[in-house]
Amino acid sequence: MIRVYKLFNLLFGVFVVNLTLCDAVDLNEGKLIAASVIFRHGDRTPVEPYPTDPYKDPKFWPVGFGQLTNTGKQQHFELGKWLRQRYNSLVSDKYNPDEMIVRSTDMDRTLMSALSDLSGFYPPKGVDVWNEEIAWQPIPVHTVPEKLDDLLAAKKSCPVYDYELKKLYKSAEFKAYDKKYKPLYKYLTENSGKKVDSLQSVQNIFSCLHIEEIYNFTLPEWTKAVYPKKMFEISGLSFAVKTYTTQLARLKTGPLLKEILHHYKNKTDSLTPKNETKRNLWIYSAHDTTVANMLNTLGVFKAIGYHNPPYASSVLIELIQLQDNYYVQVYYKNSTEPILLDLPGCGTACPLNRMFEVYKDVLPVNWDEECTLSLLQMPLDINVEESLSLVTIFGFIAVMLFVGMIVLIIATVYKRRDYLSEQKWNSLNNDSFIWN
Ligand SMILES: *[C@@H]1O[C@H](CO)[C@@H](O)[C@H](O)[C@H]1NC(C)=O
Ligand SMILES: *[C@@H]1O[C@H](CO)[C@@H](O)[C@H](O)[C@H]1NC(C)=O
Ligand SMILES: *[C@@H]1O[C@H](CO)[C@@H](O)[C@H](O)[C@H]1NC(C)=O
Ligand SMILES: *[C@@H]1O[C@H](CO)[C@@H](O)[C@H](O)[C@H]1NC(C)=O
Hints:
Layout: H1 2-26, E1 31-40, H2 70-86, E2 100-104, H3 108-121, H4 159-169, H5 172-192, H6 199-214, H7 229-241, H8 246-252, H9 254-270, E3 281-286, H10 288-297, H11 301-304, E4 314-322, E5 325-333, E6 339-340, E7 350-351, H12 352-358, H13 367-370, H14 384-432
Parallel strand pairs: 1-3, 2-3
Antiparallel strand pairs: 1-4, 4-5, 5-6, 5-7
Helix pairs in contact: 2-3, 4-8, 6-7, 8-10
One 2-acetamido-2-deoxy-beta-D-glucopyranose is lined by residues 310, 334-336, 339.
């Protein structure tokens, strides 16, 4: 992906510079007309403590493992209030289902975060007050089971993605990481009581230690040598891996980016008839990986610095109208104020049409088709395991063809012999059938 952007810069360098200069002047006069927010859930308990974890007893985590805590609810309540301020011009005070929609991954903590967020965003007012005892109203949050979710959870099966990810891990770059981090993996394996042999497995322990630190638990002595610094670097990198190449980004986060850009395209198309769509705000409640994947797919994650997106961090993708032109601006709000991102090849205010060009390679055309693994697409030299299984398959086909040919030859020979003997028999018969 990086390479593509470099190419872009080379080809359109001058153009981009001009564009950026123009935009910087103009956009303050623009009008915000739509926004999409992708956020991480709030404070949670560890998903899975490691075997030697002194805090692995559930008594330390009264809400259960991997669950949203009261702190997490509060973080999203605050974020909801903040979003209301920022997007007040897009969405009425009174809840109107046509104006906005919320989608969450199908996990307790993301669903609960979305609900907490909405309690800050939509305090009931006027006729919406339905019960004087509670300053809250129900707002729908939509979801689909993770296995079917190719949009937000991005957990629907995609064999080409899995294959490409494996290929990445076998690449020279990642083999070098393995080599570099081997001593650390060994140290963590010995001390955590769990096999640590990948970036992801380091991330899992990092995340657990980080939570325990937030909860003011004293971490074991052995962690001092590796936590947070050494583990942070690996953990951060693990968040970049899932969208490390153009194809990985396209299959993992492409559907979500595509949906957002198409919402905007539809919106700008329909602004002429005016009555087409009233929806101005889309909220997506998801995970650290979702936030990191989006940042990386947009090509800005490395520049920000690979890291674990904190609780309730958000990517804000905003559509701004200036006369008859439409621009996209992207902000990243970690836990403080949002920072405006400089999109590679398009700057801090990217014309909507240019978004489709700049991100062409990460927008899938037909995701289901692109996820289908075909034997012929696979190069043979990926790795021993896969090559072996491929060799097995091709070998099997070759053997079958060979056996088939032999059978055919034998059959032909026999048929010919039968034919000859039949002829003999016939001729003999001809002699014997004298009474005929
Ligand atoms: C941890 O300690 C800090 C400093 O004393 C305190 O502000 C914070 O609330 C504590 N966190 C928790 C979860 O108890
Ligand atoms: C955009 O509009 C078209 C035509 O109405 C519709 O088929 C499509 O689903 C819309 N796309 C999105 C992302 O809403
Ligand atoms: C938009 O409004 C026009 C005029 O009232 C109407 O003819 C048209 O069907 C409307 N379009 C939609 C999609 O509602
Ligand atoms: C949030 O971003 C700011 C500015 O980029 C940075 O200084 C700060 O450390 C970040 N906070 C977290 C929790 O990541």
